[in-house]
């Protein structure tokens, strides 16, 4: 294969994320609601019957299905299913920066408006309850931050003889920052907290 052929082949391809097909792709919605003339953010508490992360606080959302034409369609579909509202009950859906997680996940966050919270009827199989927090609380409160360190443990048959340093190779210790927002008796942490913090950063100058 000559150089011209190689460069032509590459020029026809849109650059993306290497190994994208191996990532679990999800989409979430940050729902904005108005209560007592003040902007609130709506959260869900995952049902205790859920197999993964029961009782955790999260935004509406879930895994992107093959039937979802776009991540935005997934965020709206999941919100509709989890909150028991119609598509028309969600407006002004706007994307923000997506998250590429070290754990092999890509999360596409969106922000949207739910004008009438009275229409919300949570799906009990997925949602234990919903609650709202004034946006001003998060704007005035910094999250607690802690580090989680990861230790490198190669497999027993790892070919140390093929790398410089062998068994004494100096593996780089990695860590992940975990954020914790508190509101009354609620704790918002994990990827939900990271997405929330980024959203707050985006609107901090407004």
From TrEMBL:
Enzyme's top EC category: hydrolase
Organism: Ornithinibacillus xuwenensis
One GO MF term: 8-oxo-7,8-dihydrodeoxyguanosine triphosphate pyrophosphatase activity
Protein name: CoA pyrophosphatase
Upper lineage: Bacteria, Bacillati, Bacillota, Bacilli, Bacillales
Keywords tagged on the record: Hydrolase, Magnesium, Manganese, Metal-binding
InterPro entries on file: CoAse, NUDIX_hydrolase-like_dom_sf, NUDIX_hydrolase_dom
Ranges where the Nudix hydrolase domain occurs: 23-156
EC number annotated for this UniProt entry: 3.6.1.55
Cofactor dependence: Mn(2+); Mg(2+)
Top-level taxon of origin: Bacteria
């Amino acid at each position: 294969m000559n150089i011209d052929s190689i460069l032509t082949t590459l020029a026809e391809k849109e650059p993306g994320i290497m190994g994208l097909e191996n990532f679990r792709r999800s989409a979430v919605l940050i729902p904005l609601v108005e209560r007592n003339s003040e902007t609130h953010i709506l959260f869900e508490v995952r049902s205790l019957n859920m197999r993964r992360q029961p009782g955790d606080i999260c935004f509406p959302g879930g895994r992107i299905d093959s039937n979802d034409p776009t991540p935005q369609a997934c965020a709206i579909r999941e919100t509709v299913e989890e909150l028991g509202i119609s598509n028309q009950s969600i407006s002004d859906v706007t994307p923000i920066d997506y998250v590429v997680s070290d754990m092999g996940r890509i999360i596409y966050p969106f922000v949207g408006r739910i004008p009438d919270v009275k229409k919300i009827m949570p799906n009990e199989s997925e949602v234990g309850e919903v609650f709202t927090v004034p946006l001003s609380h998060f704007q005035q409160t910094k999250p607690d931050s802690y580090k989680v360190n990861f230790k490198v443990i190669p497999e027993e048959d790892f070919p140390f003889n093929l790398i410089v340093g062998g068994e004494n190779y100096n593996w780089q210790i990695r860590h992940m920052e975990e954020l914790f927002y508190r509101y009354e008796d609620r704790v918002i942490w994990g990827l939900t907290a990271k997405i929330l913090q980024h959203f707050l950063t985006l609107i901090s100058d407004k």
